[in-house]
């Protein structure tokens, strides 16, 4: 009887329940999520998902609500309907994912961090069509500036964290990949090739970026941390079954903007007017005349069409990843092929990555991270002063002559210059037909790279980890350049062949002991001590030849006997760094936070007396929101987090200009006719580090259960002992006006940073999140060598001013009576410069604004004392704004960034108004022509540009605001529902379209407000830091449209 009763009751219970099953996936990637808790709301009835994200749960037939929760994802509830299957995609919780951050030789919970660290997840920028990962960070993190100097592939971007932190040394941050410090910058074996070290790393392999900005965060890196640190963590597998992924995009790139230059008819008009104004007498021979093709059509050549193009771009990545309880693995192979918007410019990259981590014993782990790459970049001559420089050439050439002969060969004269056509004379400066060097010259750079490390980690007792890691960054650059002897820059040399090999090896060995524990439920300790040894050795071998005897052999390599004047040279250098460091983090009741760091570095590039340096740092934090008074006040119902923090540290800069800047060096020399030894470098045995003293005060706020997060930082960085060139006293008898390096300069950067992250809407089927950052920076020089100005053609570095401020003359417009340009002297008086030939040539006259037609009174020419500061070249503010929306299977990301407060000297405008027999910009059409004309463009006169435009000098006439707002990226994707993916046995299928560099709102008249000609054409830190803000015939940025596919098996 009892048995029958129990059976009956069991039947009733069973009848009241049913099984529901389904699969939980990552909403963004579509991959199954293991270990997700699936709970029937209001009960303890729940299960965890399997390795592929599937689950089965017994639920009441009457229904209910399922709650899905997992670390790193937003908890989501779904009502139970009549169906027996319930699939769901979980959205990433950006706050949870950032709870643990990489801090250098370890990790730390975000809530306990008292320094300033910005995080960027790799998935946020994974599919951007950029040649290097650095460009993906632009506008994504407060305080970080990433500037692409032009649209050329292979040129390294300029990265700065919290301003320009040196006057003559590198201002690039230390970049560490999986614990291995890497080479950055232009690694070309020829010094002027297209070899961006950051382009060797496949962005698709990157899991996250951590940007260490303040002293507390960077002090653990000591002497290398003056410019900040970027920590890159590459991908690892996720717990669950093996996942095979294929990610690809294909697209096209176009120029964002081109130069406005004259067509044939306007060119003829302007050229002949220049000539008539030179000699207004009747019968003056005209310069330009129309040219007609075989069909009788007037020729008007757009030379920019001959140097720019629509470039095809593609990227493919295949990866295999997974993890179980003991082993974690990630393997990938990538192929990138990008044609630039500039003809002859392309980048082709092959990459392979293998990340493997395994638990041998419960107390022993072994791991390896290995990246291999081969990157080939094809470039071209982009020098703004070269005969073969692509932009300078194309903008200067006659538009009233054809680009090619009827047989398809470039139209040029016997001397290699552009053909004269029906013009009265040849082109000024003998510019060559740009088609010829583009089709015949070669600029090729091939880089091979091994980047990786292996480690062993032992945990003898709980919480104590002993880790030993050895890593290397080994690269070899094979560069080749060839100038055809028939035209352009190669003609005067009868051809040139230049080949170089540049192996570089960096070994890094670190040993650390870390300990983490919590005791008495109130005290949390995280500590690390360690040693590190780094050795860098680089070589270069170069061979050069001119006077080619056989042009056919030149484009291939340097072959013995093919050149008349061979030159072979080479060298090597090395640098060593040994370090000891320690860091202690302490938290009491999650309220009071303390961090202390000390590092000792010993650098071989400094003299023995100053080689060892100590770099301390510390920070304090107070989480007010954990105080009892805060909780009892009821504020925490909407104010979920409130933390105050402050930090201070001293760090250094290891970029000292050479491997042995302190040592006196000698080389072969002559005194009269006598051979001997002479100084090549005057030594300084007192040379020291450049020291950066970083102070930071910050506040972290969270509202509405941290759906709104606000971070504010105020920082000041005082740089003392900046290394500058100091003139050697004449009394020492050192010849050749020698100088030596000394710690005589100082400067500071200070600013404010604001970051706001919000989860605006988080609902099933629809999410919307926003990220905004805003930064300001003020840079000022406080000391120079003898407080003497450092002056270059267009810039000045002066005490009390920002580094590299624009420096030149104040242009006041045009005299409406005679068309002369007007300038203001340093004493405030106005003068006008004659544009005429004859008796008035090269004369300056006083100018009366109230009487423009007054009799001319001669005065002295403009002098150096008449120059003014025309504006600072570093932006005063910058930032970015992104909005990410998902609706069912759709995802939309819209990202814009902005910058402003800086000035640009548009030297391109100045050059395009030249008074030579070359083409001009359309701006010249607004020139002064007759008495009474009101314009800003003076009277035009052939060959008198030095007076009309002050060529070679900066003028307010060509100084423009660099402010801009750029719609940087828009991505629209769609992930197929799981039921459709299952049909083809795929766990995820996502298609997307994307546009980059879509539109720019700016008042700047050049091709792009972010260009930096001196950065793109130089690797000299003096030029890069002190001569910024100059735009001279830069190649335009590219606008990219792509379509892609993400597939997972």
TrEMBL record:
Residues 110-229 form the TonB-dependent receptor plug domain. Residues 398-850 form the TonB-dependent receptor-like beta-barrel domain. Keywords: Cell outer membrane, Membrane, Receptor, TonB box, Transmembrane, Transmembrane beta strand, Transport. It is found in: Cell outer membrane. InterPro entries: Beta-barrel_TonB, Beta-barrel_TonB_sf, CarboxyPept-like_regulatory, Plug_dom, Plug_dom_sf, TonB-dep_OMP_SusC/RagA, TonB-dep_OMP_SusC/RagA_CS, TonB-dep_rcpt-like. Its main location: membrane. GO terms for cellular component: cell outer membrane. It is a multi-pass membrane protein. Belongs to the TonB-dependent receptor family. NCBIfam families: OMP_RagA_SusC, SusC_RagA_signa. This is TonB-dependent receptor.
């Amino acid at each position: 009887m009892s048995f029958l009763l129990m059976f009956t009751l069991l039947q009733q219970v069973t009848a009241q329940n049913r099984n529901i099953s389904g699969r939980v996936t990552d909403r963004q990637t579509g991959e199954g999520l293991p270990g997700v808790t699936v709970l029937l709301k209001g009960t303890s009835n729940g299960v965890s998902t399997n390795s592929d994200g599937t689950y089965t749960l017994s639920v009441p037939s009457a229904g209910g609500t399922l709650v899905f929760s997992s670390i790193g994802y937003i908890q989501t509830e779904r009502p139970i309907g009549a169906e027996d299957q319930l699939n769901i995609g979980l959205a990433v919780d950006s706050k949870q994912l950032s709870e643990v951050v990489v801090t250098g030789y370890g990790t730390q919970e975000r809530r306990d961090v008292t320094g300033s660290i910005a995080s960027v997840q790799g998935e946020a920028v994974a599919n951007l069509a950029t040649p290097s990962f650095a460009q993906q960070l632009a506008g994504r993190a407060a305080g970080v500036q990433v500037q692409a100097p032009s649209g050329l592939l292979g040129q390294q971007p300029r990265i700065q964290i919290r301003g320009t932190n040196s006057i003559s040394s590198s201002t690039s941050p230390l970049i560490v990949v999986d614990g291995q410090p890497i080479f950055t910058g232009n690694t070309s074996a020829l010094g002027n090739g297209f070899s961006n070290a950051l382009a060797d790393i496949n962005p698709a392999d990157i899991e996250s970026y951590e940007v260490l900005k303040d002293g507390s965060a960077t002090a653990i890196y000591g002497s290398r941390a003056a410019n900040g640190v970027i920590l890159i963590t590459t991908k690892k597998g996720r717990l669950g079954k093996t996942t095979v992924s294929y990610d690809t995009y294909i697209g096209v790139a176009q120029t964002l903007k081109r130069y406005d230059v004259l067509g044939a008819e306007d060119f003829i008009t302007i050229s002949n007017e220049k000539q008539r104004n030179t000699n207004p007498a009747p019968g003056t021979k005209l310069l330009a005349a129309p040219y007609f093709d075989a069909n009788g059509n007037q020729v008007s050549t757009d030379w920019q069409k001959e140097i720019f193009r629509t470039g095809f771009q593609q990227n493919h990545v295949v990866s295999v990843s997974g993890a179980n309880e003991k082993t974690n693995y990630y393997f990938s192979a990538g192929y990138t092929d990008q044609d630039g918007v500039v003809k002859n410019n392309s980048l082709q990259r092959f990459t392979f990555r293998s990340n493997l981590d395994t638990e041998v014993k419960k107390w022993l782990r072994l791991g390896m991270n290995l990246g291999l790459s081969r990157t080939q970049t094809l470039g071209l001559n982009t020098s703004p002063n070269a005969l073969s420089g692509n932009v300078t050439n194309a903008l200067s050439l006659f538009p009233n002559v054809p680009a090619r002969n009827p047989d398809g060969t470039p139209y040029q004269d016997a001397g290699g210059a552009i053909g004269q056509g029906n013009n009265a004379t040849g082109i000024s400066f003998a510019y060559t037909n740009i088609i010829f060097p583009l089709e015949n010259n070669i600029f090729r750079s091939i880089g091979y790279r091994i980047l990786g490390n292996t480690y062993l980690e032992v945990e003898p007792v709980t919480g104590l980890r002993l880790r030993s890691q050895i890593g290397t960054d080994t690269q070899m650059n094979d560069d080749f350049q060839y100038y055809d002897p028939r035209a352009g820059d190669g003609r005067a040399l009868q051809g040139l062949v230049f080949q170089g090999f540049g192996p570089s090896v960096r070994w890094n060995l670190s040993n650390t002991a870390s300990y983490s524990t919590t005791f008495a439920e109130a005290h949390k300790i995280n500590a690390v001590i360690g040693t590190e040894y780094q050795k860098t050795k680089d070589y270069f071998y170069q061979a050069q030849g001119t006077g080619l005897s056989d042009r056919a052999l030149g484009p291939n390599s340097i072959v013995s006997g093919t050149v008349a004047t061979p030159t072979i040279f080479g060298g090597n250098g090395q640098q060593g760094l040994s370090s000891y460091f320690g860091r202690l983090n302490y938290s009491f009741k999650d309220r009071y936070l303390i961090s202390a760091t000390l590092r000792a570095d010993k650098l071989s590039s400094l003299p023995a007396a100053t080689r060892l340096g100590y770099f301390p740092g510390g920070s304090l934090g107070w989480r007010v929101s954990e105080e009892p008074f805060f909780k009892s006040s009821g504020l925490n119902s909407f104010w979920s987090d409130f933390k105050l923090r402050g930090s201070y540290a001293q760090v250094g800069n290891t970029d000292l200009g050479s491997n042995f800047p302190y040592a006196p060096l000698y080389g072969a020399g002559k005194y009269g006719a006598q051979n001997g030894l002479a100084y090549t470098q005057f030594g300084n045995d007192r040379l020291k580090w450049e020291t950066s003293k970083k102070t930071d005060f910050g506040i972290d706020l969270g509202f509405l259960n941290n759906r709104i997060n606000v971070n504010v930082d105020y920082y000041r960085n005082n740089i003392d002992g900046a290394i500058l060139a100091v003139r050697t006293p004449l009394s020492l008898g050192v010849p050749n006006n020698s100088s030596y390096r000394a710690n005589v300069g100082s400067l500071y950067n200070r600013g404010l940073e604001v970051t706001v992250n919000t989860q605006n809407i988080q609902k099933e089927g629809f999410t919307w999140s926003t990220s905004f950052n805003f930064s300001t920076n003020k840079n000022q020089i406080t000391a120079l060598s003898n407080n003497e100005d450092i002056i270059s053609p267009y810039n000045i570095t002066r005490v009390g001013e920002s580094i590299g401020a624009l420096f030149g003359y104040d242009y006041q417009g045009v005299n409406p009576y005679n068309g002369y340009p007007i300038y203001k002297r340093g004493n405030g008086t106005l003068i006008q410069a004659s544009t005429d030939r004859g008796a008035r040539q090269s004369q300056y006259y006083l100018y009366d604004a109230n009487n423009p037609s007054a009799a001319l009174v001669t005065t002295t020419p403009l002098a150096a004392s008449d120059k003014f500061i025309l504006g600072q070249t570093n932006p005063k503010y910058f930032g970015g704004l992104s909005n990410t929306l998902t609706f069912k299977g759709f995802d939309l990301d819209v990202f814009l960034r902005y910058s402003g407060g800086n000035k640009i000297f548009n030297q391109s405008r100045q050059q395009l108004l030249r008074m030579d027999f070359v083409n001009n910009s359309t701006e010249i059409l607004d020139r002064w022509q007759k008495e009474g004309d009101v314009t800003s463009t003076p009277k035009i006169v052939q060959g008198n540009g030095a007076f009309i435009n002050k060529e070679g000098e900066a003028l307010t006439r060509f100084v423009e605001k660099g402010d801009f707002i750029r719609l940087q990226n828009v991505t629209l994707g769609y992930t197929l529902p799981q039921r459709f993916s299952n049909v083809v046995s795929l766990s995820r299928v996502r298609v997307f379209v994307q546009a980059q560099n879509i539109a720019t709102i700016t008042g700047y008249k050049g091709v792009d407000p972010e260009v930096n000609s001196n950065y793109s054409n130089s690797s000299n830190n003096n030029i890069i830091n002190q001569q910024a803000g100059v735009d001279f015939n830069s190649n335009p940025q590219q606008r990219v449209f792509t379509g892609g596919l993400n597939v997972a098996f």
